[in-house]
Amino acid sequence: MLIRKAEFVCSNTRVDKLPPATLPEYAFIGRSNVGKSSLINAMLGKKGLAKTSQKPGKTQLINHFIVNDEWYLVDLPGYGFAKTSKANREAWEKFIRRYLTQRDTLQCIFVLIDSRLEPQKIDIEFCCWLGENGLPFMLAFTKADKQSAVKSDMNMAKFRRSLGEYFEEIPPCFLTSAELKTGGERILETIADVNTR
Ligand code: GDP
């Protein structure tokens, strides 16, 4: 997909204030620091579009970006801040779960996973929650440049195996590096395919 235009639309703390649900929408989510902002910026070819490294405790926002005037990319706040309070965590869950389950135009959720790590419980649990709610998702493994291809493949395989304990069918997986600008194009092609269906 050629990115002709990518613009920030709005940030929201409330699901009832989101832009009108008129365009197909693709959400990106993952543990904080997984490399979500970097991947979004690399994919859309705009450096400071999504802010990198949001600090824990900051207002958690749903950020809408419009791409090629055709679809929304939605940057969701990261989960799994080690230092956040229980109250903060619960507020995050309520807010994000509400968005994910109520947004009619949401086509697919890209769950970002750090390719350097063994399967993390919080990521598996989040995928299971998506599955239980019948929400379509795919996996984007990040930071591939940080280790050998063999190691990335091994961690991806381990993650797929862990998911396999809960899912009959494993969703598509993409290996990406924001640093090397790899993997994003395949995600964009997938989005283009869904948009033309
Ligand atoms: P977010 O909190 O998920 O939005 O994560 P960020 O995009 O802010 O990235 C967290 C840290 O990881 C930053 O220091 C980034 O520079 C670094 N990072 C993100 N993606 C990559 C990548 O593909 N390769 C490398 N080497 N570093 C990355």
Q: How many distinct beta strands?
A: 7
Largest sheet at a glance?
7 strands, mixed
What small molecules are bound in this structure?
guanosine-5'-diphosphate
Give the overall pLDDT as a whole number.
Answer: 92
- Spatial extent as radius of gyration: 16 Å
Query: CATH topology, which one?
Result: Rossmann fold
The amount of beta strand, in percent, is 15-25%
CATH-assigned homologous superfamily = P-loop containing nucleotide triphosphate hydrolases
Poorly predicted runs are: none
Q: CA-to-CA gap between the ends?
A: 15 Å
InterPro entries: G_ENGB_dom, GTP-bd, GTP-bd_ribosome_bio_YsxC, P-loop_NTPase
GO molecular function: GTP binding; metal ion binding
Family: Belongs to the TRAFAC class TrmE-Era-EngA-EngB-Septin-like GTPase superfamily. EngB GTPase family.
Protein name: Probable GTP-binding protein EngB
Provide structural commentary:
It is a single chain. This protein is of the alpha/beta class and 197 residues long. The chain has a single domain (6-14, 23-196), classed as Rossmann fold. The chain is 34% helix and 21% strand. The chain has five helices and seven strands, in the order ββαββαβαβαβα. A seven-stranded mixed beta sheet has the order 1-3-4-2-5-6-7, sandwiched between helices. Helix 3 (121-132) links the parallel strand 5 (106-114) and strand 6. Helix 1 (36-44) crosses helix 5 (184-196). The radius of gyration is 16 Å and the shape is globular. Guanosine-5'-diphosphate is lined by residues 30, 32-38, 52-54, 78, 142-143, 145-146, 177-179. Guanosine-5'-diphosphate (GDP) binds next to helix 1. Belongs to the TRAFAC class TrmE-Era-EngA-EngB-Septin-like GTPase superfamily. EngB GTPase family. Keywords: Cell cycle, Cell division, GTP-binding, Magnesium, Metal-binding, Nucleotide-binding, Septation. GO terms for molecular function: GTP binding; metal ion binding. This is Probable GTP-binding protein EngB. Its cofactor is Mg(2+).
